[in-house]
Structures are given as structure tokens and as C-alpha cells.
Amino acid sequence: MDEKYFAQKIEQKWQKRWAENKTFEVEINDGREKFYALEMLPYPSGRLHMGHVRNYSIGDALAWYKRLQGYNVLHPIGWDSFGQPAEQAAIKKGVNPREWTEDNINQMRQQLQRLGISYDWSREIAAHRPEYYKFDQWFFLKMLELGLTYRKDSQVNWCPKCHTTLSNQQASGGVCWRCGTQVEKQSRPQWFLKITAYAEELLSGIKEIEAGWAERVLTMQRNWIGRSEGAFVEFQIPNSRFQISNSEQQKNLEFGIWNLESVRVFTTRIDTIYGANAIVVAVEHPIIEHNFDNFPEAVKAKIEEIKIEKAKPTDYGEEIEKDGIDTGLKAVNPFSGEELPVWVGNYVMMEYGTGAVMSVPAHDERDFEFAKKFGLPIKQVVSGQWSAVSEGSKDQKTKSEDRATTDYGILVNSDEWSGKTSEEAKREMTKFAEENNFGKMATTYRLRDWGISRQRFWGAPIPIVYCETCGTVPVPFENLPVELPESAPFTGVGESPLAKVPEFVYTTCPKCDEPARRETDTMDTFVNSAWYYFRYTDPHNRELPFNPEITAYWMPVDQYIGGVDHAVMHLLYTRFWTKMMRDLGLINFDEPVKKLLTQGMVVGESYYSKSKESYVPPDEVKTVRDEKGKVVEANLKSDNSQVKVAVEKMSKSKYNGVDPDDMVMIYGADAVRIFALFAAPVENELVWQETGIDGAVRFLQRVYRLVYRWHKALVVSGQLQLSELNGELSQDARKLRQKTHQTIKRITENFESGQFNTPIAALMELSNALGDFKVEPKIASEADLFAVDEAIKSLILMLTPYAPHICEELWEVLTGSAKGILQSDEKFPVADEALVKADEIEIPIQINGKLRSRVLASPDATKEQLEMMALADAKIKEYIDGKEILKIIVVPSRLVSIVVKAQQS
Length: 905
Ligand SMILES: [Zn+2]
Ligand SMILES: [Zn+2]
Hints:
Layout: H1 7-21, E1 34-39, H2 50-68, E2 72-74, E3 78-79, H3 84-93, H4 97-115, E4 125-126, H5 130-146, E5 149-159, E6 164-166, E7 184-193, H6 199-204, H7 206-209, H8 215-225, E8 228-236, H9 246-254, E9 262-267, E10 278-281, H10 286-291, H11 297-311, E11 324-332, E12 339-345, E13 356-359, H12 365-374, H13 422-435, E14 439-444, E15 450-451, E16 453-454, E17 464-467, E18 471-474, H14 502-505, E19 506-508, E20 515-518, E21 522-523, H15 526-529, H16 532-535, H17 548-554, E22 557-563, H18 569-583, E23 593-599, E24 602-609, E25 614-616, E26 621-625, E27 631-636, E28 643-649, H19 660-667, H20 669-678, E29 686-688, H21 690-717, H22 731-752, H23 758-772, H24 782-799, H25 804-815, H26 833-836, E30 841-847, E31 850-857, H27 863-872, H28 874-880, E32 885-891, E33 895-900
Parallel strand pairs: 1-2, 1-22, 3-4, 10-12, 22-23, 24-29, 30-33
Antiparallel strand pairs: 5-6, 5-7, 7-15, 8-9, 8-14, 10-13, 11-12, 16-21, 17-18, 17-20, 19-20, 24-25, 24-28, 26-27, 30-31, 32-33
This protein binds zinc ion (2 copies).
């Protein structure tokens, strides 16, 4: 054993040994219970960042912990290797996307191996390889058979100058990323997956996973699905100038409109219908189209203006300024007979509900804003005084001119419905509307079908052929995969690159054998990630995405770990995919992931120089920090000018990023991983600080020195048995044993509840306790050696999930076994409850709510004993001297609280 700890040497040795021994490769049904630990697969950008390191360190700690507990642990990794950056690199630098991707994968695989993450590399997959995307295509065709795939016209971002479609990112700010031209929307036929067929199940299924997923993730999913219960109500439009034809009527039926002389609205608050001051429709609503020629010029102009504004891509959740105009059309409120103006509004979406809403400003915040802006009348129809149920975010009960109240209450100003509660009115008014044929009960969802067509090269080709005679023809299963060509002209302009590869485009029709064209769009990359972890269970299957029997053993995933930014799209798509696979008969469960952990971002300190008007690197700044390490003062070294310090997402341009590879080179993988887990609870942000990683290194050195100090004595004494020891355990040895078992209990509980930072703190305490054990190894008694052996071996086994390399090395030193911890069948230590139980515990004593002293007592001490001890305590005596004791509250093993009469002044 070297006297000093050399991280690189130890890490390389064990990485090699693990690979040779196939330590982390697993097979099904090996007699142990399975555990599936999964981290979200990376996009192969070429470089790992600290966020990755944190993600994989969490997964690895869990995987090791479960292995040491005797589970058969599946812990795989792969590459989400289709997507835009590869194509952008091709456009900008002329590289081949495939080569670029494979190079990046090689680099990142090596980085992961240098970190020593315990993956079963024999299961590695990559989305861009035909053996994988063959099954994206397979699923596409299966869904076509199930009626879950269809094609319809839909809008894409379009640059009129480059003649190309743009992703939302490429069109950010409403201009083309390449040439700066204003982006337009263009309609073109695209393929959709019918996720809405599962809307209700995606919502109700949340019950099943509630216990294992963070509430904020589930809330985001619920909002995305956006179920609302309410009613359709038909408003007649007597002055509409519709020219009715059968085909138009058919089209409007699809839009959910019963006939062309009326507008159908969807409302969740039919009880407020007497408060409606207008009907607001989307600019694309058919009633606008049909009456357009007859609108005054100002109305036409406003409609065009809104259409142009709408064509600009917006970020999700971005607040848009409300705009609109009165069209001159009139709608009749079927309840009151009142005539209401019909407006177009930029905030009403044709895709949601019916593309028309009734505006009730007194009881809806959005309508209120709109009415205020355009001076529309506001009429209260629900009293604010009584409310049993609150709907919406605001729970203010007051009804004033300045605010809308969305609370339920008693109806007022509503003819014969006045005096009823909102709930009664909703029920009865819906029934009334149904009986009089102008409305019906309805449920709507915000969730839209999943458009998967992308006009790009670097994705899975959609397996469809277009034939002049036979129309749209699916590629037969036996002809899969439809492979991407080697390359394509990457210009960034014109049609999708695939459309410019004649050998790809021109084919023969699978039905009639006549010349035909292939679909040249490729699939959204979210298709790949919707099912990739099923493939890990059977990654080399050539006939099926996976063998259902094998997958039944490993799935569902026991613990999934990733960023919260995937809370909606990826996690919703994969839940949908699971339900679809169940309906295909491939699996027999409903939810793919039992527990989900969303980790926080890794952030770093950045320095912004006001004098230079730019970010500056840390080495150009001198800082003064408080005892917690927080910067209290920062100045530029060169001119002493003030520097602004912020903690933000790591980025090269802000000089606050760190390269994991550099860190591993300097400090070792074990230390980097310990820091990634120790510095903060995994759900929180992690602030990167090199001083923190120094602490991790010092801890590992301390553990190493402990083993160095004791290893000879322990190896000589061999395996000692408690019952056969010569001599009694000393007081100190008993204390050490107690600390050992308390630590085991604490860490086991922490792991089970998903806490990854607290066990490291507990291990540091245990290593300190070992350091405090002052017996000289050479003269230690058998009893001493037994206690030390137990403590050190427990420490190492419990540290293994965090720092596997150094632990393997120390284990080999102590046991002589070169096979490694897992293949020696070592197990996570189990706490001896009798030892865990403390001899004495500290009980805080409060006087009038303030902590004044503590006493040591047996955990079994009775209320009376504790009260006596508290009153006998010297400090307490001083405090209560001469005062009247009003009450003494004793919570056994927890607290003594004394209440004294306040002193008269
Ligand atoms: Zn352009
Ligand atoms: Zn044909």
C-alpha cells in the first residue's frame, strides 16, 4: 500500500479491472430481485458538463447502494444522437453528421469511463444507428395500424428567403436564424401521433405514480393535459352573411360548430353567462373568414394585423398584450336574449376549445383585462359574499371594480337563476341548455396531438411512400429500416436535405411496383427518447424493439433521474408510449417509471466588470468572502474597479463553467463525484466552488490515512469474532461501535428516502470518530481491533457508492481480495439496533420558548424523571430563581418546556 493517496493511479487500475471482469454487466433472472436505475440519456454534444456529472453521480450512488444490498441492478447508458446540432455542424462546417456524432460519442464515452460510472456498457444504444431507429419506424407503422398515426395540414415556421422550414429555436424572435428575414407560418401536411386518445388516462394514471414523483412535475403534466369540464353553448348570429354549402357545413362540424349561423363557445362557468358582454373569436374562426368581405376596412386591417403578429413564433408562457376589435356581428345570449358584440381577439386560439369564448369580465381575469382595455361594460352576476369553493388562483372574496372574482357564490342579476349557488346553476343551466337544444355538457383538453414531422436530415425517416395510383402507402415491416443515405447536400436553404437525394426519394410502390416517392420528413427526436430505456433491457434484438419476456423482468424503471426541464414533453410522451405499447400487447403495465428524481442545476459564480462592460475570468478578480464562502467584495485586479458577482447557469461566455475532465485530472473522479453530491441536496441548485472540491479531497485522504495506519494490524489479526475476543471492550471501543452502527442506520435511512448529501456528512463524522480513537495499532487489544475493523470496513462499504475507486483499493488492502467488492459478494452493512440505541441522549430545556440548557438522559427516562432533572440543572435554576412556574411540559426523549410568569416591571 502506498503511503499517500494517488487518485489517478487507483482510478485507472479499477476502471480497467471492472471492464475486464465485466463487473457491471447483468443478466435476467439470476435469483436476485431486480432494480432498474436510470439516468436520462445525453445528447452527444462532444463534452460532458457538470450537470451531466451530477446526474450520473446520483444514479451511480444509487446503483452501487442497491448492488451492495443484494439487488440485480440494471444501470445502462446510451445516446440521444439524432437532432439539430449535428445538422448545424454539417451546414456550418461541412462535416458529415454521422461522423461528427460518432466522434462525439467516443469522446463522451471516454469521459464517462474516466468518471468510473458503473454502466453496463454491453447495452449501450444510439438513436442514430439503423438497428435502433428501425424500431422508431416499426412503432410508427404499428400505430398506423392502431389508428394512432395520421396526416393532416399543420403550420410550420417558414423563411421566405431561404425557402426552408425552421424549428422554433431557429425562428426565435420571429426572424430566421440564418438571414434575419421575418419568419412566416406555412401550412403543410405533417404526420401526427394521437396522444390525445390517451388524454384521460394520462391524467388519471398520475394517481399510480403520485407517491414517487415530485408534485411540481405532476402539476406541470396536469396543466399540460389541461382538462376542463364545462359546457358548449350556442350563440345565434342573426346578422352573419354566411353562404351555406354542404362541404362548408361539414368542415364546420369538424370545428365543433353545429351550424353556420351561430358560434359555439366552450365555458367552464355557464353560471356567469348573464355577465357576458361579448363573444370573442379567434382570427382563424370560420365566421370571420365567411364575413370578411363585408367587414369595415378598420376591422379587416386589425384582423390582418393580428394574423401577422400571430405568425411570429412566441415562447411558451410568454404574455402577449391583448388586442382585438368589434366586428359588427351580433350574437344572441340564449339565456337572456341580450345582443352581444362579436369581437376578434388575439388571445383566443382556434386550436383550443371551439375557437370562441364568451367574455365575462366580472368573473374572469383575462376577460377583465380585455374589457378594461377596450372600455367594455362589466356586470357582476355572482355575489362575492359567500363562497364555499374557490376556483382559479386568486382567493380574494371582495368584488370591486378593480378586480375580477373567479370565486363561486350566489347568482345575482341572472333572471330566474338568481339566488342559486354557482354549483346548482352550473348543473341546472347546462341541463336547460340541453333541453332547449342550444348547449350540452362537455370536457375539453389543452393537450394537442403530437406532430412528429421534421424537415430535416438527421432523424429517423418516416416509413411512408407516396404513389400516384395507390396514394399513401406504408413501407412493409420486412423492408425496415428505411435507412438514411450516407450524406446529403447540407445548405440550410431550400427543401429538406433528404428531398435532394434522388436515390433516397425515388423508389417503387410496395403495392403496385410503379415508381413512387418516399416521405422526406424525418421524426421528432422525442420519438427516440420515448422508449429508449425499454431497448436497454434487450438491446441487440433484431426482430422486435424488445422481447416482452425479458422486458417484463426489468421494467418498470425503479428510479429515473434527470432534469426538471423534461417534466412535460419527454415524460408525457414516454408515458403515452408506454400505454400504446401496452395496447400493442408488448407490456402489461401502465406506468413506466415508479420513482422520478429531478435534480437541480449546477451553477457557478460569474464576474461582470462594469468598467470593461463584459464578463471577466475569475483569475482577474480578487474577492473577499465571509465565513460561509459568500463573496462580500469583488474588484478587478488590474484597476481595482468594482465587479458584480452573480451565481448563474454555467456558460463559457461567462467564464463560470468548469470542464469535468480537468477536474478529474486534478482532483480525481472520486472527489469530483463526492463534491457533486455533497454540496447540496440533489433537488437543489449546486453552486460550483473549488474550495468545496478541496474538502472532498481532504476527506478521501483522511480515509486513506486511517486505513494506512491500521491496515497491518488488522490484516495480522484476521477475521475476529465478537464472542471469541480476549478481553473486554473498552469504553472507547464501545463508543466507536455505537457510532458505527448509528451511522449505518442513518445512511440506510437517507438512501431509502433519496437523500444523497447527508450520508457523506455522516461518513465524515464516522471517520472523525475513528481518528479520535487514540489506541496505537501495535498495542491494540483484540477487542480494540475488532471495533476498529468493524468501523473501517463499514466506512468503506458505505462510501463505495460515492467513491468506488478508492474504496475498492482500500478493500483489497484490508481483505487481500483482488476480485473487487461486488464479486467478493460483500454487502452493505446492517445496523445492530441494540447498539444504535444511545446510552444517553440530549434533551433541550426551554424557558418561555427559549432554549436555556440541555441535560443528558436515558432515552427511556420518564416524564417525572426529566422534569426533576430539568429543575435541578444549574443554568435553569438560575433562570427560574424567584419566578413563579406556571406550567412544565415534558415530551419524553425530546423536550422539557417550562413556562414562568413574566416579571413585573
Ligand atoms: Zn432565412
Ligand atoms: Zn402504387
